[in-house]
Amino acid sequence: MTEATDRPKVMVIFGTRPEAIKMAPVIRALNDSPLRSIVVVTGQHRDMLDQVLQLFAIHPDYDLAIMRHGQTLSDVTVRVLTGLEEVLERENPDLVLVHGDTTTAMASALASYYHRIPVGHVEAGLRTEHPYNPFPEEMNRRLISRIAALHFAPTETAKQNLVRENVSPSSIYVTGNTVIDALVSVIRSDYRFRDPELARIVALPGRMLLVTAHRRENLGAPMVRIFRALREILSRFADTRVVFPMHKNPAVRHLIKQELGMLERVHLVEPPEYEEFANLMNRAFLILTDSGGIQEEAPALGKPVLVLRDTTERPEGIAAGTLRKVGTATSEIVAAASELLTDTDAYSRMACTANPYGDGKAAQRIVGVLQVHLFRGS
Ligand code: UD1
Ligand code: UDP
Question: Which residue minimizes the CA distance to atom 13 of ligand 1?
Answer without folding.
Answer: 16
